[in-house]
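User: Here's a chain of 104 residues. Predict its fold as tokens.
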Amino acid sequence: MKLPKTRKTYCPKCKKHTEHKIAEAKKKTPSTAHPMGKGSKKRAKLRGRMGLGSKGRYSKKPLSKFKMTGKKQTKKIDLRYTCTICKKSHTVGKAWRAKKVEFK
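Assistant: Prediction complete.
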């Protein structure tokens, strides 16, 4: 996928539309982006759930019939926008899958 190196878009720091440089950043997994999220194992462990009684979904064996095998062919790509005026960078929430991103 070919993208331009610069783009005029909104800067939350300057609070106006300015020229931004675009760089590629790999999408973070939910466990690294939100390690204390609702369904995380780390949070359950810190609550003290891991040693007492039934562990709910953690105690169940995985279903072999629905087990996914192999890996995905592409990674989710996030774009990091850096303002040319204030030098602050931000990302836009939308990420999509692409094998290769090229800036022209």
